[in-house]
Queue: 4 jobs
Job 1
Amino acid sequence: MPEPKVALVTGAGRGIGRDIAQRMAREGYAVGLIARTKSQLEETAELIRRQGGKALVTPTDVSKREQVLAAVEAVERELGPISVLINNAGAYLRKPFLEIAEEDFDFQLKVNTYGPFFCTQAVVGRMAERGSGTIIFVLGSESRSGPLQYSAYNASKLAQRAIAESVAYEFMHRGVHAAALDVDGAVGLERVTEAAGGDVDPDHFVATESICNELVHLINQPRNAWTFAVDLRSYWQWRPRVAAKKKA
Ligand SMILES: NC(=O)c1ccc[n+]([C@@H]2O[C@H](COP(=O)([O-])OP(=O)(O)OC[C@H]3O[C@@H](n4cnc5c(N)ncnc54)[C@H](OP(=O)(O)O)[C@@H]3O)[C@@H](O)[C@H]2O)c1
């Protein structure tokens, strides 16, 4: 009997994570859903079930190791061994550098760095024992050159990238594929497109469908050709890294 396909998606209550969770279900995975807000997770689970998929709601704060361990245990007990982990949960803090308090900095590191660290540590050992598994870290523009007023967020996400790279090299020989997926730009979520005002070309934003396509591509890569880091940006990238040449 082949093992059941089971994915654990963090930050699955709304935004990108909700779309990822639904896509994983469409790809035939039973999906464990993690976020703190139970009602939002239940909405995601309902969307999955309506499409004929299977989902388990596990309200969890990823910054708390005990809660992460309990969620992983519940998912593996109810759905089976986790074969895919998507570290997507994230919290943003935008504040001028001089106003960032120590608690702000701690908060960003707790959610965006400790969170994926705890989740990865909770599943990677068992994946390695089974000789297979995929772990994806959803990153953003910050891991290239941080936007201003996001220094605590940038630091926490850069640290997450470092974890992704180390895990990739530490576990590759044991059959576990870890990869950083760098979404370099604004994503086409309703709240983002609305904030940009109407009448904006939808291709200015990275579509969640494109993010999901890339995730599925990474998950299905053969073990003789694994990608450890990939990036996506729209043609309209809002923050060019090289100034346009002035016309003569
Ligand atoms: N939106 C963009 O334009 C964009 C661009 C590039 C990269 N990204 C990355 O994509 C990821 C998702 O972004 P998004 O825009 O979809 O965010 P979002 O709409 O704010 O959703 C974040 C999700 O993470 C959960 N979450 C936050 N803190 C958590 C915690 N401590 N424990 C467990 N779950 C927690 C939230 O639920 P609760 O609050 O209920 O816990 C929610 O389900 C983030 O890692 C972000 O850095 C986003």
Job 2
Amino acid sequence: MTSSPLYRSPVARYLWRPSGTCLVLLSVLILTACGGGSQTTAPVASTPSTVTLSAAALLGQKIFSDTSLSASGQMACATCHNPANAHAQSNNLAVQLGGIDQQLPGTRATPSLRYLNLLPAFFFAGDGTPTAGFNRDGSATTLAEQARVPLLAAHEMANISNADLTARLARTAYVEEFRRVFGSDILAAPEQTVDRIGFALQQYQKEDREFFPFDAKYDLFLAGKVTLENAELRGLALFNNPAKGNCAACHTSARGADGSSPLFTDFSYDNLGVPRNPAIPANTDPAYFDLGLCGPIRTDLSHRADLCGAFKVPTLRNVATRKVFFHNGRFTNLRDVLGFYVRRDTNPEEWYPRAADGSIDKFDDLPAIYKKNVNLSEVPYNRLPGMAPALSAAEIEDVITFLGTLNDGYQITN
Ligand code: HEC
Ligand code: HEC
């Protein structure tokens, strides 16, 4: 499981990319062949363009930005998942501060909430590949279940109990609407009330196209409505090329045969050996490690030593708008992320600190016993010191330029 062709499950791929013929993209030419021709008129997204939100989703929309549901009175889902920032954080802190006095730090960087609407619960594919689920460790099975976590977490919205949250809901302007939709005596049962709050937030995220607009420049390119600039095309070819970036091996870039748009993730898990981030307060304890699938937040896989250090592959849609990157927010710009990908093994001294004996403490955010779990076999990691990186500095610029075509809300200007 540790060396990761196994992580690239054909089953997982099948889920997201039904077209077997386009799974491996050798060049932009093949991509055009897959996405073009008779498919150019296929719908870019699988949902209709005008959607009326259900009553539950309309409530979810109100709850999503209601700071009165937090203990501090200052925090809502939208505080960390800012709609103006692709539903991700809008500051460049590695971890957000929350809780009753807005001073308690979390332990992970805030992901975007875009393009999660069809994601199933975590599962092991037929070949054992961990796949899907919500949160960076797949710990929540549905969007509804996930929503309860920040509402009740001491370092986030900090309600101390279901009753506490229900009392806050009772004081909102939309409580009558909540009763109308979920039952006139619903608030008498706090457990059910919080369950319905989670459901409302789920329906909002699943129904409102703001969460999955599929209107990036790249979507318009796949639909044959715009062309890409030369640097964007070069970047796309490097992104897809298995001998260069090989990014599409995990960050799916091709449409499915049914015309479904690529999500730039296969929702599998991998261990990249991202350097430790000293900006996370929990990391001041040298014995603390965030090991993703195997804990400490998620506990049901703590016996799976082979999964320690694996985190979910995130979508790269809107990645150019992100303020911090990777689960621990270790990097603050794409140039460093790409540099890390291709020079992690050729130039480890650029990324990792030195140990007491002067040696480079490679993979310093993993306990020694789990360092062997880091993916060393797949391009672009398969290098040794002294070898040339998989991408040159100029090629990195092209890939970054291409990633800019994945931002939602592209406007055709000419
Ligand atoms: C204090 C900042 C903060 C607040 C407030 C917050 N979140 Fe999050 N959210 C995060 C972080 C950090 C993660 C990653 C957690 C993890 O991986 O364990 C996350 C993860 C998620 C995910 C999973 C995304 C994925 O890629 O699987 C969803 C969905 C989500 N949040 C929805 C919400 C909703 C709905 C609310 C309001 C009830 C909310 N969040 C409030 C910071 C926040
Ligand atoms: C073997 C699978 C794999 C390959 C190949 C791969 N990635 Fe990733 N990528 C991941 C995983 C897993 C993460 C999340 C790691 C974490 O949070 O610790 C990630 C995270 C990222 C992020 C950070 C996104 C965010 O929201 O923080 C960027 C940017 C990125 N990858 C770009 C690329 C590019 C560009 C390439 C090609 C050069 C590439 N990746 C190749 C698995 C892969």
Job 3
Amino acid sequence: MSDTTQQNPEEQQPQADPVFTLHMAAMREMQEPRDGIAPTPVSYIICCFLALLAGGWYMGYYGGEWTANGLSERPIAGIPPTAPPQDPMVLGKEVFGACIQCHQESGLGVAGTYPPLARSEYVLGDKRRLVAILLKGINGELVVDGKVYNSQMPAWEIREDEEIAAVLTYIRASWGNKADPVPISLVTAVRKETAGKGEWRSAALDEFAATAPAAPAAPATPAATETPAAAPVK
Ligand code: HEC
């Protein structure tokens, strides 16, 4: 009876076989885990990359204190100082640490080798000459407080103007020395004036001090421009 309705059972079987469809579904949806290394999903790689990028940006943007500047007591550039401008006497004493090995903490130097800074006419006299000595260093015979020295002091021009002004202000007001402070602007000016010069010899230093605008009692605001091209040298 039922034979008459099913005309061709072989033709329909491939699509309709429940075992076959079940297997197709199982193969499609439940892949067998495979041995060995599976490739990392691209989405995972992108996520890691973005996380690193965001972390790097965050540290770069907010990690200001991790630069060398953050460890410096005196910030170099860019980062504003936490304290107001330093007292030159405080900064000067700090910078003077570099001078102690020769000129001694007492400022008296070492007899016969390192001249004293206390009661020295070079320290107490013309500020412009004093700045020039520090910037360029000095070599050869030099008479300080009546005694002859014949040695060499290195140049200090790698120090900032502020540091040089401060240390000179400090030595002019220590060990009984009483002379007015050295303004930073003077250091800047003398640095320009002596650019390209080598270390001083006593005679060249005297000449330098005599020829140009020496101002032992300079006004509080020294003129910034002196029109140096005005007088042609014969
Ligand atoms: C390596 C040793 C040495 C160091 C460090 C040194 N000086 Fe000198 N300084 C000398 C010598 C030596 C002379 C004399 C040079 C000569 O005989 O021509 C001199 C000369 C001077 C003079 C002129 C002469 C005088 O006694 O007044 C001044 C000012 C001076 N130094 C200041 C300083 C200051 C400030 C520092 C620190 C920033 C310093 N020196 C660091 C060795 C040194």
Job 4
Amino acid sequence: MKRPLKHLHKRTTDKHDFFDALFDDLVVFILSKLSSTASSPSQFINILSTCKRLNRLGLHRLVLSKAGPKVFSIKAKNWSEHVHRFFKLCVNAGNLNACYTLGMIRFYCLKNRASGLSLMAKAAMKSHAQALYSLAVIQFNGSGGTKRDKDLRAGVALCARASLLGHIDALRELGHCLQDGYGVKQNVSEGRRLLVKANALELAFVIRAVTSASPSRSLSTSSVLTWRAVDYTVCPLLSDYGYNVAVPVVQPVNWFMREWFETGPGRVEMVAGLRLCAHIGCGRPETRAHEFRRCSVCGKVNYCSRGCQALDWKLRHKMECSPEEVVGEDNNGGAGGGGVDLGNDDVV
Ligand SMILES: [Zn+2]
Ligand SMILES: [Zn+2]
């Protein structure tokens, strides 16, 4: 066994090592696998700074097109022209995750609405469920325009497409729309059915996450996942079914937006009176004053969507909402609390 190892060592210290002998195609193939499975941006970016050859091949169109969502999970404080350029390279390579993420950042954070919408639409046309859902939220609120730019029917249609692709928030939103007759003909029983289905899908998602994280544990002991940067470790919706499991990790771009508007460059707008969606895992800001729905009971919190409102109600707001704090004025139809049953119209 010793001889081959010695031989190997000798070869790798030679001027022309094994790596040099590998064909570019093979290196690109390996890098594509790496970029699609990287668990953080640095895991991929570090490869690019290793040597000139890896830098050249790492920026190959095929490698960039395969980059997974976690390659784009950057922090708001790390946003720079350099990062923007990297995103653009990935967009040009046809990467849908890059299209969606940069679309959201441009639309909400950089206020380049047209370009942001066009990038999200590019991803949506290729059936990117998150892009479809985000476009739906924009249509429901008339974001980037005036109140008259709201297109509820378009929002419902986009939600329907995203929910067919298994997007749980879109399914929940669609359920609430049907229950309330919002942008679609009211159908309470179908709405309730979709809300129950959304919760069943969420349960399946969490069970998969928990069992893959810790195969030896059962659900009864499964507060094993934590919602990153959030104290709430138990999924409030599933707790209604008697399960004590963690909620899924929030999408990177949603954290990016929350950081951008709470502690980053977007803080100025929040100080100026625009508000963030109160659901901790959303991060969407208002694009004009009084754009979001407000809790009609306390008037203190605002939401970009019915889905966010329902989740936040069960997650924390039902503990905080106080009817005595009524402000009087009601915008956008308002919001409300009360009730605990899943699939119920407890948050209107
Ligand atoms: Zn929201
Ligand atoms: Zn409230």
